[in-house]
Amino acid sequence: MLTGPDSNMLSPQEVRDLSGTSAWQTVKALAMDWALIFAAFALAILWPHPIVWLASLLLIARQQLALAIMMHDAAHKRLFASVTLNDNIGQFLCAAPLLFSMYSYRTLHLRHHKEPLTAEDPDLSLTGGYPISKKSFARKLLRDASGISYFKFIRYFIHMAGKQKARSSDSGPGAKRSSDSPPTVKIVCSILLLNSLMLAALTLLGHPWLYLTLWLLPAITALQVLLRIRGIAEHAGYQATKNQMFCSRTVTPSWQTVVFAPHGVNYHIEHHVYPSIPHYNLPAAHKMMRERAILPEANIFSGYDQVLQKLII
User: Fold this and answer.
1) Which of 56, 98, 202, 262 might form a disulfide with 40, Cβ 3.0–4.6 angstroms?
2) CB distance 21 to 78 below 8 Å
3) Helix, strand or coil for residue 258?
4) Three-state DSSP class for residue 241
């Protein structure tokens, strides 16, 4: 945790109070995420119209983003007090549906928290180099929407995960396996299980093709656009600094945060200063920090359009 003026920061007891996990809050959030996914599929099945299909695709992309954010909370072990339950739910219900490994993500993401915007930051390929021109940003969005970025990201993620694994193995061949590095078979089985169940359910309903067009397609295309806008809004345009409040952004709640920042990920300054606080307590942390004039007002924005105006020139 990196702090600002010590006299104004949240006290250790306040941080402990805000950092407690709530199984109810986690279950409620995941239930809502999956309910909206089911609703999007139902709409496309009941009203097979191109406009309904497009609306369903966009809703599912947003819900895939929501699952990715819940995977992020699982990486910080903020879903449940039980680490075993936290990791299993984070992998099986959040990461696996997105064909992802929560464990590999955790390893890379925690490094991002240690060294944001430095050469060692695994997110630098997304957040570095800003501001950029409108033409350059348009090309990035085109690659996102066409699916090119997805495959580039998967290749980059595998490379970075392998690099980190090699770094971790420097302790020698006799080192014990980390609890954050489970057998690959568990990750593969979770991905196959969740996606097979989804395909089987849609097949029983007579619409197997919806797995391709309303699950895989948005993950490869529209989700990548959402991830880019959310991702660059968090750190792009800043320089690495010891006090992470000054290299992170918070976007205050609006309809834009509903679309681009589910589960409180828009409170990104608060998250970097106090990464132990789960998403449902970040609004309270924001309120307390702002009342005490802790937060740098220049790093607080009212919308993602405002952020993009700063980053796209």
Assistant:
1) 56
2) yes
3) helix
4) coil
Amino acid at 263: H
Token output for 239: 């320089």
Beta strand spans in the chain (E): 250-251, 300-301
Band of the pLDDT at 169, cuts 50, 70, 90?
low
What does the pLDDT average to over 18-25? 98
Burial 88-97 (b: 16+ CB within 10 A, else e): bbbbbbbbbb
Q: Two tokens at 3?
A: 């702090």
Domain boundaries of the chain, sorted by first residue:
12-168+180-311
Average pLDDT over residues 115-138: 95
285: exposed, middle or buried (Cβ count in 10 Å: 0-12, 13-18, 19+): buried
Q: Residues near 43 by Cβ (< 8 Å), separated by ≥ 6?
A: 52, 55, 56
> How far is the CA of 4 from the CAs of 11, 242, 273, in angstroms?
13, 10, 9
Tokens of 7: 């006299």
First to last CA, the chain: 33
Pick from 7, 41, 63: which is nearest to 223 by CA? 63
> For tokens 């796209």, what's the residue?
312
Tokens 């239930």 belong to residue = 31
* pLDDT tier at 180, thresholds 50, 70, 90: low
